[in-house]
Amino acid sequence: MTSLATRPDVSERFGNARALTCRECGASFDLGALHACLECFGPLEVSYDLPPVTRRMITDGPQNIWRYASLLPVPPDIADRPNTEPGRTRLVRADRLAKALGMRQLWVKDERSNPTHSFKDRVVAVALAAAVEMGYQVLACPSTGNLANAVAAAAAKAGIESVVLVPANLEPEKILASAVYGGLLVKVEGGYDDVNRLASELAEERDDWAFVNVNVRPYYAEGSKTIGYEIAEDLGWRLPRQIVVPVASGAQLVKIDKAFSEFVSLGLVPEADVRVYGAQASGCAPVSAAYAAGHDVVQPVRPDTIAKSLAIGNPADGPYVLDVVRRTGGTVADAPDEEIVDSIRLLAATEGIFGETAAGVTLAVLRRLLAAGQIDPDEETVIINSGDGLKTLNAVSGAVSLPEPIRPSLAEFTRLYEART
Ligand SMILES: *Cc1c(COP(=O)(O)O)cnc(C)c1O
Ligand SMILES: [Zn+2]
Predict the structure, then answer these.
(1) Residue 404 maps to a domain
(2) Does the beta carbon of 149 lie inside 6 Å of ligand 1?
(3) What is the DSSP letter of 118?
């Protein structure tokens, strides 16, 4: 840890980041604890003054997201500070799944090996680093589940307090997997959008708490770029032609697209057209509905789906998702719960990857887009498995048949084995 006396000047505290820039009107503000534009209330985004970055500088870096630290709003010594070290997850060549779908080249970016088993560890690590620089002592969030796990774990590792707010009806696995880290866990009656509203009110009152996805959201969101960087690096420094990304707030999709553009402009990968597709559950598909209707704004909905990690009825980055998919020639589509469950099983049965409901959504939407001729089966495609099926066991418990126990007898085993379907 850098002591206060030797702490680098402001420009270095956030690495190569230089300002917070409004995504609506373009106004720029000093880096700090600001998340909405003072001119127009639009959302702010971190902008950079990027130095030359070489592949070698990246590959010589640590085996976690900090190999891309020069492209994030974090201090240069970030890798040496206590943190959960997320990232460097596998890009799995999914030949058996590709064959089942009639595709030529398919990859699964498998986020299960992150410290709390979802991609949320990436965004939280970046938010925490920036929050510590800004002097916050408490890390907090409203969460659909995985974020709560990641915040509670990251705060534990950094030795600071955490306060996580989740919907009371969340999967018990996700509630336990937050509580175990010992911070304050609050179960709130209502859906995620109610939890989020309470968190926004709290963030106003407790301005010494860093709500990762509220008042330090510009920093948090940047963490998702590392998924895009890793995909490009693991493909051998090039971009795929098509990518399907699950959409809750939409930040992950928008930032993967930003990562690809940054790598092209830094000369780290050859220029390529990447079609970006967004995936939602039909029971919570506000962005998909706006896309289908040709709208630029997203009408909030009341979520009702087994894909709780994606159940945000009023997605902050919805309009920017629409921009990205329209600009790149992709789409946003949705799939119903039965297809989500069936796709969780297909991914497990073909690739040995047990993804959570968000993975089921992503694969189900890929299958729909293939059937509709909107995704080219011959072009190289990446899908994201953003979380772990062990956290959403109930979603598949009705769909997977479980056997009655037998006595430890050869005859009983043989009868069971021969009756199998
Ligand atoms: C949060 C979450 C998402 C969606 O991320 P956004 O950036 O909010 O769109 C996708 N998958 C899983 C497993 C998540 O927890
Ligand atoms: Zn503005």
Answers:
(1) no
(2) no
(3) B
Q: Tell how far the Cα of 269 is from the centroid of ligand 1, in angstroms.
A: 26
Based on the fold, state whether residues 11 and 134 are members of the same structural domain: yes
> Is residue 185 domain-shared with residue 283, that is, in the same domain?
no
| pLDDT higher than 50, residue 4 | no
Name, in order, each residue with C-beta under 8 angstroms of 263's C-beta and a sequence gap of 6 or more. Answer: 228, 229, 232, 239, 269
30-57: average pLDDT: 95
Tell me the one-letter amino acid at 130: A
Query: Which residue matches tokens 């039965």?
Result: 338
Euclidean distance between CA atoms 385 and 248, whole angstroms: 14
Q: Which ligand is nearest to the CA of 41?
A: 2
Instruction: Flag whether the pTM goes above 0.90.
Output: yes
> Does residue 416 lie in a domain region?
no
Judge if the beta carbon of residue 146 lies within 6 A of ligand 1.
yes
Ligand 1 centroid distance, CA of 111 (Å): 11
Q: Tell me how far the alpha carbon of residue 139 lies from the centroid of ligand 1, in angstroms.
A: 19
Are 274 and 361 found together in one domain? yes
As for how many domains the chain has, the answer is: 2
The bound ligand whose nearest atom lies closest to the alpha carbon of 38 is 2
Which of residues 220, 251, 279 is at a domain's end? 220
Ligand that lies nearest to the alpha carbon of residue 37, given by its number in the listed order:
2
- pLDDT tens profile 209-244: 999 999 999 999 999 999 999 999 999 999 999 999
Q: Does a structural domain hold residue 158?
A: yes
Distance from Cα 250 to the centre of ligand 1, integer Å: 8
Sheet holding 184-188, edge to edge: 184-188, 161-167, 138-142, 209-211
**CB 148 near ligand 1, within 6 Å:** no
- Do 249 and 334 belong to one domain? yes
Residue numbers of the domain that contains 125 = 4-68+120-220
CATH number of the CATH domain containing 19: 3.40.50.1100
Torsion of Cα atoms, 270 then 273 then 274 then 277, to 10°:
170
In a domain, 29, yes or no: yes
